[in-house]
Amino acid sequence: xxxxxxxxxxxxxxxxxxxxxxxxxxxxxxxxxxxxxxxxxxxxxxxxxxxxxxxxxxxxxxxxxxxxxxxxxxxxxxxxxxxxxxxxxxxxxxxxxxxxxxxxxxxxxxxxxxxxxxxxxxxxxxxxxxxxxxxxxxxxxxxxxxxxxxxxxxxxxxxxxxxxxxxxxxxxxxxxxxxxxxxxxxxxxxxxxxxxxxxxxxxxxxxxxxxxxxxxxxxxxxxxxxxxxxxxxxxxxxxxxxxxxxxxxxxxxxxxxxxxxxxxxxxxxxxxxxxxxxxxxxxxxxxxxxxxxxxxxxxxxxxxxxxxxxxxxxxxxxxxxxxxxxxxxxxxxxxxxxxxxxxxxxxxxxxxxxxxxxxxxxxxxxxxxxxxxxxxxxxxxxxxxxxxxxxxxxxxxxxxxxxxxxxxxxxxxxxxxxxxxxxxxxxxxxxxxxxxxxxxxxxxxxxxxxxxxxxxxxxxxxxxxxxxxxxxxxxxxxx
Length: 479
Hints:
The chain has 479 residues and is α+β, with helices and mostly antiparallel strands. Helices cover 33% and strands 24% of the residues.
């Protein structure tokens, strides 16, 4: 078997010979008549077609050759015979075109004895000479990291992967259509911010030379979108890229896509209705079903109504009725027995939340609204009128992970300042004073929600890892 280096050398030699023959190995415009899928849907024999695609297989029979070309929509067989094509064109295909090359073909349709729809080629145009050969062993590669590192090869060979990213695109389009239809306006807010606010997360930091100031890649667009509520835009949303300088896992990528949506004069109940109707509408329109099969064979049932349960109640249900009656030391000891890790100086509410996230959340496959979390966990949410120790929020958990937090937005600027100062341990320089100034001008009561688009697509496509729904996820450098 020839080494990859030798094959590359041979292809470079072919490129040089093509240039000597005044044949451009990297042709320009080609008048494609239709995508391959359209040919298969309209297989009128003897009609002329002009198709372009990558050469995926090649069977040389001497005076004739069969091959397969593939475009973004499908694959079709082509037939090249020395009696139906010019001599120099036959020579080009036989001696200078290799697997992986991108070509354009013109010819008429016919059906072989085996019943295969085929193009009888009359003209060939070389559109891109592939110097590196396609890996023959690709079909057997199981290493997910190799597939992700060379996503272009993954997309060439793996139709399931291509379909996943087509589904992602359709999901985002359907979200826009749904929100636009309800009177929401899509907006854009800064990705570089003087303060990283809107979520308790570690930001990426950069520096702007002209202004002489440090900036942060946003961890969330929340505080800017609320400024728009103050300004009078009553229904806004942003499909945004956000960045968090934190760990990488099956559920996390440092760069991710999120939907944030805000509705003036609404509350967390408004967002609950919006979330379940948007997700079920998108699933029905994109997939045509509300039962989703996961990678492990488990099924997720999106049919309404979705379960609602109070945070405290589900912890007592799953961990023990006495959880909130025992002492803090006993809670910490029990959490450790359950295999839950947390920093030694974690406050009591964080220990309980770590148990929720590590033990309860992964078990919730069907959509579940977990409501009324402790106020210390969500400093931007409005306190519950009957019990100010909790806030009017929900976490939508589905597919074993949080998909969407939402809450009744806190619009009291005095209370908001107190809570942000408490979160910042009294360091006033760490809070967004301009956001507070905006609140002091009066923000209408509102409901707000964030939905992780990557996680939503994971759920709808049934894949295991967030890397399967991000075209180019962050990876460690190869050593």
